[in-house]
Write a structure and sequence with these properties.
alpha/beta; Aspartate Aminotransferase, domain 2; 13 strands; globular
Amino acid sequence: MTTFPIERVRAEFPALAGPHAFLDNPAGTQVPRRVIEAVSSALASAASNLGGAFEASRRADAIYARAHEAMAELLGAGSGGEITIGQSMTTLTFQLSRSLGRRFRPGDELIVTHMDHEGNVSPWLQLAEDLGLTLRWLPFNRDTWRIEPADLAALLNERTRLLALNYASNLTGSINPVAELAALAKRAGALVYVDAVQFVPHGLADVAKLGCDFLACSSYKFFGPHLGVLWGRAQLLRELHPYAVRCNTKDLPGRHELGTPQTELLAGLAAAVDYLVWLGELTGGSDSQPPVRGSRRERIAAAYGAASAYEMPLAQMLIDELRRIPGLEVQGITESNRLNVRVPTVSFTHPAHRNSDLARALGEKGINVWSGHNYAYEVARFLGLDEREGVLRIGLAHYNTQTEVERIVGELRGLIVR
């Protein structure tokens, strides 16, 4: 934590100059200045539709292309043609579920998990209901806090058509062994749809190595604007029926994108990836190694490495201090030797306090957190938690500080231990 240039990083985020502690990052991160400026610049100079024979439209074309290529770099995709950008991850998942549904027949089976956000549950639930598909529920292991391959293997059969699972939980913070789970599903002939919304802010996704067919994320969770992003195998994206207007392009990447692109947000999306490239340049060197000057992908990898090396000790400090509060129960991995299988999202409950009351009291102190099921509805139910109150969730990002961790723990101790 001492070598990470935290003050230099925080200076990039205008919102952090104020008195508030932003510990609500799983719900949405703050944005660096370059993202704000990119959005503003696009509104000033490229507020036009695509494909026009004039300068503003050509600038919009360039922004559109660059956003798709930037996301291909971030996710390890082959090209920007494999990237579909839309309003949100949930919107894209509902849309793609309808396209995939044209390949399924009554009696086919879909697997969803008790660990996922509703954005990767409800689309498949509704598809199964509409088409007469069989839905199978995959539990997570209460000892390891992850989805275990043996539990998935027990559900797979010749009728399995799709496995939908998350990379990291937005409630427990656990990271699933996606590559191993995907390999099992693929051997059974199933497609694999991965919700990486909570992983991408903290770890380097590599779609080529994961073996999945689709991977979705949200740019407002990794320092960008409110957009959803979907990577898909190019051949699948070309084959799937697009639910779009008749005159929409049939080519990638626009084949599954609906309506006029949000050009200003696309500019902000590319700038968010640029920020990670910058962070890799800033943090990739050491006393014995020069700064990273490789490809943009290599600099992004360096950014994630440095951010994780800073975030996770903070997360362990938070977990350890929370567990010292009498009666408090962390809902997730707590062991220091398992930091590599969780993100710095820490949720907890206390039998004597409503989580909503605690969140409100912290908010009055200028500390931003969330309470409730946080759309991890099945997780809360699986853990036997009150479905409305859920948990109190603290989510760290690489711009948070040890002082902020000490601040929230001190306030919580004062609220709980009276």
